[in-house]
Design goal:
- The structure is a single chain.
- Helix content is about 50%, strand content about 5%.
- By secondary structure, it is an alpha+beta fold.
- The protein has two domains: about 5-80, Glutaredoxin (3-Layer(aba) Sandwich), CATH 3.40.30; about 90-240, Glutathione S-transferase Yfyf (Class Pi), Chain A, domain 2 (Up-down Bundle).
- The longest helix has 28 residues, at about 125-155.
- The relative contact order is 0.14.
Protein backbone atom coordinates (compact mmCIF):
# COMPACT_ATOMS: atom_id res chain seq x y z
CA UNK A 1 0.00 0.00 0.00
CA UNK A 2 1.27 3.48 -0.90
CA UNK A 3 2.03 6.02 1.79
CA UNK A 4 -0.21 9.09 1.79
CA UNK A 5 1.61 12.38 2.28
CA UNK A 6 -0.57 15.35 3.17
CA UNK A 7 0.95 18.78 2.53
CA UNK A 8 0.13 22.08 0.84
CA UNK A 9 0.29 21.60 -2.94
CA UNK A 10 2.06 24.76 -4.13
CA UNK A 11 5.22 24.83 -2.02
CA UNK A 12 8.10 22.59 -1.01
CA UNK A 13 7.96 23.62 2.65
CA UNK A 14 8.30 21.09 5.45
CA UNK A 15 6.71 18.40 3.32
CA UNK A 16 9.72 18.38 1.00
CA UNK A 17 11.90 16.78 3.66
CA UNK A 18 9.52 13.82 3.68
CA UNK A 19 9.27 13.75 -0.12
CA UNK A 20 13.04 13.53 -0.43
CA UNK A 21 13.12 10.45 1.79
CA UNK A 22 10.28 8.74 -0.08
CA UNK A 23 11.80 9.56 -3.45
CA UNK A 24 15.34 8.51 -2.50
CA UNK A 25 14.00 5.15 -1.29
CA UNK A 26 11.77 4.63 -4.31
CA UNK A 27 8.79 4.18 -1.98
CA UNK A 28 5.28 4.36 -3.48
CA UNK A 29 3.39 7.37 -2.15
CA UNK A 30 0.50 9.66 -2.98
CA UNK A 31 0.93 13.41 -2.59
CA UNK A 32 -2.70 13.75 -1.57
CA UNK A 33 -3.35 17.49 -1.80
CA UNK A 34 -1.96 17.67 -5.35
CA UNK A 35 -4.81 15.49 -6.64
CA UNK A 36 -8.38 16.71 -7.30
CA UNK A 37 -10.26 16.71 -4.03
CA UNK A 38 -7.06 16.21 -2.10
CA UNK A 39 -7.19 19.51 -0.24
CA UNK A 40 -10.67 18.67 1.07
CA UNK A 41 -9.43 15.27 2.22
CA UNK A 42 -6.49 16.87 4.02
CA UNK A 43 -8.71 19.45 5.70
CA UNK A 44 -11.10 16.73 6.91
CA UNK A 45 -8.21 15.03 8.70
CA UNK A 46 -7.35 18.33 10.37
CA UNK A 47 -10.85 19.53 11.26
CA UNK A 48 -13.13 16.50 11.60
CA UNK A 49 -14.21 16.10 15.27
CA UNK A 50 -14.41 12.35 14.67
CA UNK A 51 -10.61 12.16 14.29
CA UNK A 52 -9.43 11.08 17.74
CA UNK A 53 -5.81 12.23 17.28
CA UNK A 54 -5.88 15.11 14.81
CA UNK A 55 -2.62 16.44 13.37
CA UNK A 56 -1.91 20.04 14.31
CA UNK A 57 -0.87 20.97 10.77
CA UNK A 58 0.61 19.46 7.60
CA UNK A 59 2.76 17.64 6.85
CA UNK A 60 1.32 14.40 8.11
CA UNK A 61 1.69 10.88 6.80
CA UNK A 62 -0.95 8.15 6.65
CA UNK A 63 0.25 4.56 6.57
CA UNK A 64 -2.80 2.33 6.83
CA UNK A 65 -4.38 3.19 10.17
CA UNK A 66 -1.28 4.99 11.41
CA UNK A 67 -1.17 8.79 11.18
CA UNK A 68 2.05 10.65 12.00
CA UNK A 69 2.49 14.43 12.03
CA UNK A 70 5.57 16.64 12.44
CA UNK A 71 8.41 16.29 9.92
CA UNK A 72 10.98 14.87 12.35
CA UNK A 73 8.49 12.32 13.73
CA UNK A 74 7.47 11.24 10.22
CA UNK A 75 11.11 10.71 9.26
CA UNK A 76 11.83 8.85 12.50
CA UNK A 77 8.96 6.50 11.58
CA UNK A 78 9.96 6.14 7.93
CA UNK A 79 13.72 5.90 8.42
CA UNK A 80 13.99 2.18 9.29
CA UNK A 81 11.21 1.26 6.86
CA UNK A 82 12.95 3.00 3.96
CA UNK A 83 16.45 1.90 4.99
CA UNK A 84 17.38 5.52 5.56
CA UNK A 85 18.25 5.08 9.24
CA UNK A 86 20.91 2.99 10.98
CA UNK A 87 20.10 -0.36 12.57
CA UNK A 88 21.46 0.36 16.04
CA UNK A 89 19.07 2.22 18.34
CA UNK A 90 21.72 4.65 19.57
CA UNK A 91 22.54 5.58 15.97
CA UNK A 92 18.86 5.97 15.07
CA UNK A 93 18.44 8.31 18.01
CA UNK A 94 21.49 10.30 16.90
CA UNK A 95 19.98 10.72 13.41
CA UNK A 96 16.75 11.87 15.07
CA UNK A 97 18.64 14.42 17.19
CA UNK A 98 20.29 15.80 14.06
CA UNK A 99 16.89 16.04 12.36
CA UNK A 100 15.46 17.93 15.34
CA UNK A 101 18.37 20.38 15.09
CA UNK A 102 17.56 20.83 11.41
CA UNK A 103 13.98 21.59 12.48
CA UNK A 104 15.28 24.32 14.79
CA UNK A 105 17.46 25.68 11.98
CA UNK A 106 14.52 25.72 9.58
CA UNK A 107 12.40 27.69 12.05
CA UNK A 108 15.11 30.34 12.34
CA UNK A 109 15.35 30.62 8.55
CA UNK A 110 11.59 31.21 8.36
CA UNK A 111 11.69 33.77 11.14
CA UNK A 112 14.20 35.93 9.28
CA UNK A 113 11.53 36.99 6.80
CA UNK A 114 8.60 36.63 9.23
CA UNK A 115 10.02 37.82 12.57
CA UNK A 116 6.75 39.25 13.92
CA UNK A 117 3.96 36.91 12.82
CA UNK A 118 3.34 34.25 10.22
CA UNK A 119 -0.10 35.71 9.60
CA UNK A 120 1.35 39.01 8.36
CA UNK A 121 2.74 39.66 4.89
CA UNK A 122 6.48 40.16 4.57
CA UNK A 123 5.85 43.79 3.59
CA UNK A 124 4.12 44.34 6.95
CA UNK A 125 7.26 43.34 8.88
CA UNK A 126 10.02 44.24 6.45
CA UNK A 127 11.65 46.65 8.91
CA UNK A 128 11.90 43.99 11.60
CA UNK A 129 13.20 41.47 9.04
CA UNK A 130 15.94 43.89 8.01
CA UNK A 131 16.99 44.12 11.66
CA UNK A 132 16.96 40.36 12.17
CA UNK A 133 18.74 39.29 8.98
CA UNK A 134 22.26 40.53 9.88
CA UNK A 135 22.29 38.52 13.11
CA UNK A 136 21.13 35.41 11.26
CA UNK A 137 23.77 35.85 8.55
CA UNK A 138 26.58 36.71 10.94
CA UNK A 139 25.81 34.46 13.90
CA UNK A 140 23.09 31.86 13.57
CA UNK A 141 23.81 30.61 10.04
CA UNK A 142 27.55 30.04 10.73
CA UNK A 143 26.81 28.48 14.13
CA UNK A 144 24.44 25.85 12.72
CA UNK A 145 26.72 25.14 9.77
CA UNK A 146 29.78 24.74 12.00
CA UNK A 147 27.88 22.22 14.12
CA UNK A 148 26.95 20.13 11.10
CA UNK A 149 30.56 20.37 9.93
CA UNK A 150 31.73 19.05 13.32
CA UNK A 151 29.28 16.14 13.13
CA UNK A 152 30.61 15.23 9.69
CA UNK A 153 34.25 15.59 10.78
CA UNK A 154 33.70 13.32 13.81
CA UNK A 155 31.97 10.55 11.88
CA UNK A 156 34.83 8.03 11.44
CA UNK A 157 33.15 6.54 8.37
CA UNK A 158 33.95 9.73 6.44
CA UNK A 159 37.73 9.38 6.76
CA UNK A 160 38.22 7.80 3.36
CA UNK A 161 35.05 8.81 1.54
CA UNK A 162 34.41 11.50 -1.04
CA UNK A 163 30.71 11.52 -0.16
CA UNK A 164 30.36 12.23 3.57
CA UNK A 165 27.40 11.19 5.71
CA UNK A 166 26.21 12.56 9.02
CA UNK A 167 25.88 9.12 10.64
CA UNK A 168 27.63 5.92 9.58
CA UNK A 169 28.61 5.08 6.03
CA UNK A 170 25.20 5.07 4.33
CA UNK A 171 22.73 7.72 3.24
CA UNK A 172 20.25 8.67 5.96
CA UNK A 173 17.24 10.94 6.00
CA UNK A 174 19.32 13.47 7.93
CA UNK A 175 21.71 13.72 4.98
CA UNK A 176 18.76 14.41 2.70
CA UNK A 177 17.43 17.05 5.07
CA UNK A 178 20.77 18.84 5.38
CA UNK A 179 21.03 18.83 1.58
CA UNK A 180 17.59 20.45 1.42
CA UNK A 181 18.54 23.08 3.99
CA UNK A 182 21.61 24.09 1.99
CA UNK A 183 19.62 24.13 -1.26
CA UNK A 184 17.00 26.36 0.33
CA UNK A 185 19.57 28.72 1.80
CA UNK A 186 21.36 29.01 -1.54
CA UNK A 187 18.04 30.17 -2.96
CA UNK A 188 17.11 32.48 -0.09
CA UNK A 189 20.51 33.99 0.79
CA UNK A 190 22.99 32.95 -1.92
CA UNK A 191 25.75 35.42 -1.01
CA UNK A 192 25.74 34.73 2.73
CA UNK A 193 25.39 30.98 2.25
CA UNK A 194 28.26 30.70 -0.22
CA UNK A 195 30.51 32.58 2.20
CA UNK A 196 29.72 30.12 4.98
CA UNK A 197 30.04 27.07 2.73
CA UNK A 198 33.65 28.01 2.04
CA UNK A 199 34.30 27.50 5.77
CA UNK A 200 32.53 24.11 6.04
CA UNK A 201 33.95 21.84 3.31
CA UNK A 202 32.29 18.66 4.60
CA UNK A 203 28.85 20.28 4.50
CA UNK A 204 29.59 21.55 1.00
CA UNK A 205 30.68 18.06 -0.08
CA UNK A 206 27.52 16.48 1.34
CA UNK A 207 25.41 19.04 -0.52
CA UNK A 208 27.25 18.30 -3.76
CA UNK A 209 27.18 14.50 -3.52
CA UNK A 210 23.70 13.71 -2.16
CA UNK A 211 22.00 14.58 -5.50
CA UNK A 212 24.13 11.99 -7.29
CA UNK A 213 21.98 9.19 -5.89
CA UNK A 214 20.14 7.76 -8.87
CA UNK A 215 16.55 8.01 -7.65
CA UNK A 216 17.10 11.40 -6.07
CA UNK A 217 18.70 12.79 -9.23
CA UNK A 218 15.67 11.67 -11.22
CA UNK A 219 13.31 13.32 -8.75
CA UNK A 220 15.22 16.60 -8.64
CA UNK A 221 15.07 16.78 -12.45
CA UNK A 222 11.34 15.97 -12.59
CA UNK A 223 8.21 18.12 -12.44
CA UNK A 224 7.40 16.58 -9.06
CA UNK A 225 10.13 18.75 -7.54
CA UNK A 226 8.44 22.11 -7.11
CA UNK A 227 10.63 25.21 -7.50
CA UNK A 228 11.39 27.39 -4.50
CA UNK A 229 9.11 30.41 -4.30
CA UNK A 230 8.17 33.28 -2.03
CA UNK A 231 5.37 31.33 -0.33
CA UNK A 232 7.49 28.68 1.36
CA UNK A 233 10.09 28.55 4.11
CA UNK A 234 12.97 29.66 1.92
CA UNK A 235 12.22 33.06 0.33
CA UNK A 236 14.59 35.22 -1.65
CA UNK A 237 14.40 38.86 -0.63
CA UNK A 238 17.67 40.41 -1.87
CA UNK A 239 17.68 43.04 0.86
CA UNK A 240 17.97 40.27 3.51
CA UNK A 241 21.08 38.79 1.91
CA UNK A 242 24.44 40.44 2.34
Amino acid sequence: MAYQLHYWPGIQGRGEFVRLALEAAGAPYLDVARDPGGMAAMERCLDDPAVARPPFAPPFLVDGKTVIAQTAAILFYLGPRLRLAPVRETDRLWVHQIQLTITDFMAEVHDVHHPVAGSLYYEDQRGEALRRAPDFRGNRLPKFMRWFEAVLERNPSNATREAPHLVGARLSYADLSLFQMVEGLLYAMPKATRRVLRQVPHVAALHDTVPRHRRLAAYLASERRLPFNEQGIFRHYPELDG
